[in-house]
TrEMBL record:
Entry protein name: Methyltransferase
Pfam family, one: Methyltransf_25
Alphabetical keyword list: Methyltransferase, S-adenosyl-L-methionine, Transferase
A GO MF label: methyltransferase activity
UniProt-listed CDD domains: AdoMet_MTases
Organism field: Pseudomyxococcus hansupus
Gene3D superfamilies assigned: Vaccinia Virus protein VP39
Length: 198
């Protein structure tokens, strides 16, 4: 399994600069799509926020009383997430880590949320990402991914099914909205998949 996503060296600098100088996804609030999933009872148990960034989604869920862990490769993001949890009096864990090597967390989860990480991966890395997720998601657990529906990073429904094949069941796939500092945001897909026991 590749240890870092294809082409990551260039994107690492983009994300580091974005986190330090102002990221378009830094809205200061959780994505409405994940709030709605929580309200619908679709997020439960121990939760992993993969590619958590500044972790507004994770912090929202921690405030609801869930046990939450966030992981991201960017130190500025993890540092700010920890500071925010402390300032808000919330209990949540945040770790620097690689989404392709999630077993290194040494934990298993009932739910995984993904806010705009999936579309960062090149097609050749998506199956490795799916395998990494499967290694930490308990059978019957849910993976909810919010990712771009349009533009150069878009992932088609067919490409999603190709990446998440054996060991996964696609429960729902619907059009959604990805919120950004730009009020228009971006057209997105919201996919919910279930980890099937092998």
């Amino acid at each position: 399994m590749r240890h870092e996503p294809e082409g990551w060296d260039i994107r690492r600098e983009f994300f580091r600069s974005s986190y330090l100088l102002g990221a378009p996804w830094d809205t200061g609030r959780p994505q409405r799509a994940f709030v709605e999933l929580w309200e619908a009872g679709e997020i439960s148990g121990e939760v992993l926020d993969v590619g958590c960034g500044f972790a507004e989604n994770a912090l929202f869920l921690a405030a609801q009383g869930l046990r939450v862990c966030g992981v991201d490769m960017m130190e500025p993001a993890i540092s700010r997430a920890r500071d925010a949890a402390y300032a808000r009096g919330l209990t949540a864990e945040f770790h620097m880590g690689n989404a392709l090597m999630l077993p290194s967390l040494g934990r298993h989860f009932d739910t995984v949320i993904d806010s705009a990480l999936l579309h960062v991966f090149e097609p050749g890395d998506r199956q490795a990402f799916a395998a990494s997720l499967a290694s930490v998601l308990r059978p019957g657990g849910r993976y909810h991914a919010l990712y771009f529906r349009e533009g150069p990073r878009a992932i088609s429904p067919e490409a999603l099914r190709a990446a998440f094949g054996e060991g996964w069941r696609l429960r729902t796939l619907r059009e959604a909205h990805y919120e950004q500092t730009d009020p228009e945001g971006a057209p997105a897909w919201l996919a919910s998949l279930e980890r099937v026991a092998s």
